[in-house]
């Protein structure tokens, strides 16, 4: 793992869609750094059970779980096409060549309207 990729990112959200990010969350990469290889996030889920807080008020019990998200660009650079496509398919994505072709078709349809 490159040292340039070892840093703690901040995920930023914009409240509006008419923006540079189009409403997608983004990470501002500092000068001299690269996007991280993997991002770790905690997921919080309510169990459906409750317990009293310090004031005696019922509060939902939550379970926390760690999730990791890999940078697909780095996987694509490091893996064979066949293995990369298997990972894409395991994530519910089309193999890369099929996805690119569908993207081209959609772009052509938009341009021809």
Summarize the structure.
By secondary structure, the chain is of the alpha+beta class.
Walkthrough of the structure:
With 113 residues, the chain is an alpha+beta fold. The chain has a domain at 79-113. Helices cover 29% and strands 28% of the residues. The protein contains three helices and four strands, in the order E-E-E-E-H-H-H. It has helices spanning 72-78, 81-90, 96-111; strands at 11-12, 26-27, 38-52, 58-70. The strands form two sheets. A two-stranded antiparallel ribbon has the order 1-2. The protein is extended and about 60 Å long.
Question: Structural class per helix/strand content?
Answer: alpha+beta
Arithmetic mean pLDDT: 92
Helix content: 25-40%
As a whole number of angstroms, the C-alpha radius of gyration is: 20 Å
Distance between the termini: 45 Å
- The geometry reads as extended
As a percent range, the share of strand residues is 25-35%
| Biggest sheet architecture | 2 strands, antiparallel
Strand order of the largest sheet: 1-2
Low-pLDDT sequence parts: none
The SSE string, one letter per element, is EEEEHHH
Q: Could you tell me the number of beta strands?
A: 4
Number of helices: 3
């Amino acid at each position: 793992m490159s040292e340039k990729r070892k840093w703690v990112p901040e995920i930023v959200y914009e409240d509006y869609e008419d923006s540079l990010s189009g409403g997608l969350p983004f990470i501002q990469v500092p000068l001299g750094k690269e996007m991280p290889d993997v991002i770790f996030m905690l997921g919080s889920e309510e169990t459906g059970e409750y317990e009293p807080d310090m004031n005696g008020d019922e509060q939902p019990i939550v379970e926390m779980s760690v999730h990791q998200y890999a940078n697909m660009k780095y996987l694509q650079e490091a893996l064979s096409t066949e293995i990369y496509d298997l990972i894409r398919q395991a994530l519910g994505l089309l193999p890369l060549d099929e996805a690119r072709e569908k993207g081209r078709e959609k772009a052509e349809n938009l341009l021809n309207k």
